[in-house]
Amino acid sequence: GSVLDQSLESLLHRLRGLCDNMEPETFLDHEMVFLLKGQQASPFVLRARRSMDKSGMPWHLRYLGQPEIGDKNRHALVRNCVDIATSDNLTDFLVEMGFRMDHEFVAKGHVFRKGIMKIVVYKIFRILMPGNTESIEPLSLSYLVELNVVAPAGQDVVSDDMRNFAEQLKPLVHLEKIDPKRLM
């Protein structure tokens, strides 16, 4: 979902009341999306992300699998996810492996937790000069809102918990399952 800039404080206030009793974390991350094109129709995509506000933190490499074609009544998108911490030379390594950088952006926002759920509210910033994370501008006048859970396969009851939590955020934000094929 998304929320306009002027409604951000209302959403953050509601999330503080609904989520676990701890102050939300803030983050400022630089993310680069790398593609490896092969014989298959769609390229292999990896995401490299690093913290810009916490020095000494490792790069994170993330692979997000294709969404499972499953029960249409399932309330959440389900896909495999592999997320690993890496060394500082990750981007050089990916280029040497044959990947090319497709795009990059800066994400700035807040992370809330409710049990095993993670709620992320963030704004995406366009990088004006490639590689220069100091020169950025907001991509839109709204913040993205994501609700996600890392769970073992077959834990479909988790999607019901996610739907119930999303209902509590209405009418500030309408969280919905996105069909990635619709976006292409």
Automatic annotation (TrEMBL):
<dbReference type="InterPro" id="IPR019095">
    <property type="entry name" value="Mediator_Med18"/>
</dbReference>
<comment type="function">
    <text>Component of the Mediator complex, a coactivator involved in the regulated transcription of nearly all RNA polymerase II-dependent genes. Mediator functions as a bridge to convey information from gene-specific regulatory proteins to the basal RNA polymerase II transcription machinery. Mediator is recruited to promoters by direct interactions with regulatory proteins and serves as a scaffold for the assembly of a functional preinitiation complex with RNA polymerase II and the general transcription factors.</text>
</comment>
<protein>
    <recommendedName>
        <fullName>Mediator of RNA polymerase II transcription subunit 18</fullName>
    </recommendedName>
</protein>
<dbReference type="GO" id="GO:0016592">
    <property type="term" value="C:mediator complex"/>
</dbReference>
<comment type="subunit">
    <text>Component of the Mediator complex.</text>
</comment>
<dbReference type="GO" id="GO:0006369">
    <property type="term" value="P:termination of RNA polymerase II transcription"/>
</dbReference>
<dbReference type="GO" id="GO:0003712">
    <property type="term" value="F:transcription coregulator activity"/>
</dbReference>
<dbReference type="Pfam" id="PF09637">
    <property type="entry name" value="Med18"/>
</dbReference>
<keyword id="KW-0539">Nucleus</keyword>
<keyword id="KW-0010">Activator</keyword>
<comment type="similarity">
    <text>Belongs to the Mediator complex subunit 18 family.</text>
</comment>
<dbReference type="GO" id="GO:0006357">
    <property type="term" value="P:regulation of transcription by RNA polymerase II"/>
</dbReference>
<dbReference type="GO" id="GO:0070847">
    <property type="term" value="C:core mediator complex"/>
</dbReference>
<keyword id="KW-0805">Transcription regulation</keyword>
<keyword id="KW-0804">Transcription</keyword>
